[in-house]
Amino acid sequence: MDTTRTLFLPPGGSTVAPEVDALFNFLVYVAIAFFVLIMTMVIVFAVRYRRRGPQVLTPGISHNTALEMTWITIPLILVGIVFVWGFRGYLKQSVVPKDALEVRVTGQKWFWSFAYPEGATSINELVVPAGKPIKLLLSSQDVIHSFYVPDFRIKRDALPNRYTITWFEAPRPGNHHLFCAEYCGTKHSAMIGTVRVVSDREYQQWLESTSASGTGMSAVDFGAKLYVSKTCNSCHSNDGRAMNGPTFRNLYGHDVEMTGGGRVIVDENYLRESILDPRAKVVAGYQPIMPTFQGLIKTHEMDALIAYIKSLSPTKEDDGQPAPRP
Amino acid sequence: MDNQPPVHSYLREPSGLKSWLLTRDHKRIGVLYLIGIMTAFVIGGVLALMIRLELLRPGPTLFTPDTYNKIFTLHGAVMIFLFIIPSIPAALGNFVLPLLIGAKDVAFPRLNLASWYIYVVGTVVALYSIFAGAVDTGWTFYTPYSTQSTTTVTAMTLGAFILGFSSILTGLNFIVTVHKLRAPGMTWFRMPLMVWALYATAVIQILATPVLGITLVLLILERLFGIGIFDPAMGGDPVLYQHFFWFYSHPAVYIMILPGMGIISELISTFSRKTIFGYRFIAFSSVAIALLGFLVWGHHMFVSGQSELASMVFSALTFLVAIPSGIKIFNWLATMYKGQISFTTPMLYALSFLCTFTVGGLTGIFLGTLSVDVHLHDTYFVVAHFHYVMVGGTVMALLGGVHYWWPKMFGRMYSEFWGRIAAIIIFVGFNLTFFPQFVLGSQGMPRRYFDYIPEYHSLHATSTVGSWVMTIGFLIMAAYLIRSFSHGAIPGDNPWGSLSLEWTTTSPPPTENFAVTPQITHGPYDYDQMTAASTLARHGTGAR
Is the peptide bond before B6 cis (omega within 30 degrees of 0)? Predict the structure, then answer.
């Protein structure tokens, strides 16, 4: 059911795309037809009736009711057709099929999180099986965001005070861009994710691996994976560079100055508190912009992440400075 | 044609700065507004160039994301509130309205001056917000982002609130002027179509602007005292703000475009030397647009979570607005038929308008179509669409109007050669800037993005180059317009051979506009019955 790329539209990747594209293309043809008609008249009249000599009287054509009714009626019929066609497509985009798989989508400055029926979660990557309708139950933790997948021709605002709903069915496996389309601040244009459409079998495997989360991996390795998948890496470097947040390199075990005075030794409990309640104690020099991960991170994931952050602080012999004692 | 400008012109008598700052002459107030909006246009234009520079290539180019967000917010706010809304009604409208209907001034000259001062105060407050750190919310100030933002939202919205009063009072003044001050014989259907357009605009200014004022006050109260009307934590609703905001801001789109359509009617008739085709249809379509414009605000909210039923009704009403706009386009074309068309600078802008406004109107159909709008909403397609309407429509008409009435306003002619060159360069640069944005948007590029995925690079780069071409056109224009004050030829009272009333007095007019109150015996477009020479013979040449 995919449509092919045109000058204007990206290749369609959902079951509603062909209908939207057909109407879009119809509008392009109608628009070109009217544009060419109007421009031809402008050019023909401009050339044919260009001023050649001194001012003379011109024909006093004041109106022509039949002609005027014509250019009222024809556009009226055309917009009538377009209106009904557009409304039918909109209903298709809005009415969710009964057997749809439900995914909870949460927009938050500046990432998307997804919660699947089986208890799995993911961040900035929505993984769905091909050929199955997916219902998205959208909400926001802060300001208004908008869930937009151009290839699917769907978009829906995520609001802080209510659920909004949209749905799609992607017939074939593939990757699609996910954008935030409602302006939400500093990293609005970086609030980009992927919709990964996979076969049913791959989807089941992915669910298992995500839910089992880290079995067979060391805590540090699993933490390193979470560091990327939970998007910690978009604000915290692991190599000493300062980004929106402090680097994780040489953070654990060190004595850090807080906004508003006071110092804190970074230990397991400080890290845990910072993940669940990031604005409680903010490192001096940084804005309190980190969102809470309360409910988005499980206990064993927390353990693994802390283990990973600890692994980024070399022992005191390595950095040549004694770790301060509490 | 004389070689000296008339002695008794509003420009010279009385003289002195004080006489200008305390003037009650609608023409001087029009000129004061013109200075204001041109200043705003330069500020907004520089901000636009900064936006395009940042988007020249993906990734950070010149600014941080926060700075970029402030720049596009200020570009929108300055261009909308300080430039385009007052542009044609307050600047050109003030100058020409009494002249067009044969009046000595507007109905309330002191109120008119007060409107200008309110505009200045609002502008100063808005500019203060820029220097105090600037706003980052987008010109739409959507909640809850705007209630949480730590930037100077309060100062900027207060500025917009104050500017609203200027707009309301100007609208009030114009309505009373049109009702009460028409010269003897100037019946409603002998009024130039520019007057109908200004009248319809004034109705919207009076009815819609208070809603914006109330909305902005609520926003300020929410920020200062947390009253909770838009705050979900206190039972408020952020989407309510969008309804309030667009209840004004969609009609405001017609505040911007309707007077532009009025200018185009004047230009096409004058430079085709032809009776306007379908006068009544054009006049009533202005009123129809003004009224329908109040009922379509929800088409900005098809994906906001408003009910599907509401969306359906808003979509249907939106399509109805297309009909009167289409009537105007076809009537202008029919006016050109069998005319005597000359390609002066103002007419080139009118022809540019026919091309670019048509594109703007046709792409509006895409956005009114529910299923297609779901894909296009908040993308560059919308950005391209409203720039085709606002710049390709209103600004083209404004430039046409400024060039048309320039000899009337200042008694000097600019260089026609450079005028045409600049018009062509601006037309090319405009299309180069904004057409690629239609493609970008339909491919999925969201608006208000500091950065973008590499696929969109070449179209963004083309758009940026277009913005430079447009700038060259505007610089040429600034140069020849400024030069015209000292070196411009003296044009005579009626350089274009127009039949409309303002050309029967001297250029520039005396303070009282007409030496004797004109008696109107014919319509402004009776090119089938008389030439400009015969009108002059009938009216005399005004004050000289």
Answer: no
Q: Sort out which chain A residues have CB atoms less than 8 A from B368's CB and list them.
A: 83, 86
ipTM of the shown complex: 0.92
Query: In a 3-state reduction of DSSP, which class is residue B191?
Result: coil
Distance from CA of A322 to the nearest CA of B (A): 37
Look up the pTM and report it: 0.88
- How far apart CA B513 and CA B183 sit, in angstroms, is 12
d(CA A152, CA A21): 11
Residue contact B358–A38, C-beta within 8 A: yes
A12's tokens: 């369609």
Cβ count within 10 A of residue A201: 9
Both structure tokens of A319: 């950095």
Q: Where does the pLDDT of residue A230 fall: very low under 50, low under 70, confident under 90, or very high at 90 and above?
A: confident
Question: Tell me: the pLDDT tens digits for A88-97?
Answer: 999 999 999 9
Condensed to tens digits (0 to 9), the pLDDT of residues B274-298 reads 999 999 999 999 889 999 999 999 9
Number of other residues whose CB lies within 10 A of the CB of residue B471:
19
User: Measured at the alpha carbon of residue A116, what is the angle toward residues A115 and A118, in degrees to the nearest 5?
Assistant: 130
Q: Answer whether A291 touches B (CB < 8 Å).
A: no
Cα B490 from Cα B492, distance rounded (Å)? 6
Alpha carbon distances (Å) from A225 to A214, A218, A220, A261, B87 = 9, 11, 9, 34, 57
What does the alpha-carbon distance between residue B368 and residue B382 come to, in Å, rounded to a whole number?
A: 11
- CA neighbor of A102 nearest in space, from A128, A139, A125, A140: A128
Q: Could you tell me how many CB contacts below 8 A there are between chain A and chain B?
A: 272
Q: How many CB atoms lie within 10 A of CB B210?
A: 14
Query: Which residues, in sequence order, are CB contacts of A230 under 8 Å at separation 6+?
Result: A123, A293, A296, A297, A301, A305
Kindly state the tokens that stand for B339.
């005319």
